[in-house]
Amino acid sequence: MAKYRIGIDLGGTKLAVGIVDSTWRIVAESVSHDHTCCDEEGILDRMARNVDEALGKIGASRSEVAGVGVLFPGHVRWPEGITLTTSNLACLKGFPLRETLQRRLGMPVVVDNDANAQALAEHRFGAGRGTRNMVFLTVSTGVGGGIIINGELYRGATGTAGEFGHMIVAAGSDAKCSCGNRGCLMAMASGIALRQAAERNAAILASQGQSPGLPTSCLDLDDLDGERLRDGFLENNQLCQSIVEEFGSYVGIGIYNIFQMLNPERVVVGGGLLNLPDHFLDTVRKVFRGLARDMMHDELDIRKGELGGQAGMLGAAAIVHSEEGPFGISRDQGEKPAST
Ligand SMILES: [Zn+2]
Known about the structure:
Elements: E1 4-10, E2 15-21, E3 26-32, H1 40-57, E4 65-72, E5 74-77, E6 82-86, E7 95-96, H2 97-105, E8 109-113, H3 114-125, E9 134-139, E10 143-149, E11 152-154, H4 185-188, H5 194-207, H6 226-234, H7 238-262, E12 266-270, H8 278-292, E13 301-304, H9 311-323, H10 331-335
Parallel strand pairs: 1-4, 4-8, 9-12, 12-13
Antiparallel strand pairs: 1-2, 2-3, 5-6, 6-7, 9-10, 10-11
Helix pairs in contact: 3-9, 5-7, 6-7, 7-8
Zinc ion (ZN) binds next to loops.
């Protein structure tokens, strides 16, 4: 029986490969940052090199691996593993990643959206443990999500369910999203939204006769990132407090919409912006409760993710595990071209 599963986190800046053992520990890693300047062949080469390097660290071979799970930062057609859209890795748009990588590595491969894998990891090993129906929402540079129904990932007809970042939470807003629509959650509350949010909140405060300055760590608005937003909030900078409050409100509205659609037991919120002070999540809960009122029969548990950066690789390995079995992936798949 194979001893390991491999999780590959193919990010917009980082390519991380983790070897996961049968007790769900990451026993070796290989991380690189030079794949974004490559074409598709270069990215596949880099993934294969990282896989071999990580296996080499524990003296293991490819034959000891049950399968490889790849997380992709964009829409993925499931189960074919064709990458549909991505804002980071343009050369992989519309690319048959599963089939091509499977042939290259000689191992079974599954490819899924990054937030789906993080959702599964939080459900199996993190803040979603013990639930049957859970939603994961990641609020970071962008906004993504994953849906667990009856203990399994729900992917929808083509694999793109749970893209909560493009849920419209502010119809009528001018804030433009990367998808071209206006008022999407991602355009209102995310790292990408920060600049627009700062300008909007500065204008609101000015209209109230206040002239809020930037936090001390920022020379101009271009310096403002998640970390400086947090610092500014903690130093009682009015603009930062106003942005955090607004981000919390929009995420609260987003979770209210999710609640009405899916009625999950728990919503786990992860992602880089969760380094914001607790006030952020308190605002999310307050806005959510204000909307749900007596339509909520049992308290919806909204809590922070537990796994952080490891969620991706663990989740990718967990997706491999969930696809194993008589009707799922098998070692044979990697030995021959999947298109024949
Ligand atoms: Zn959008």
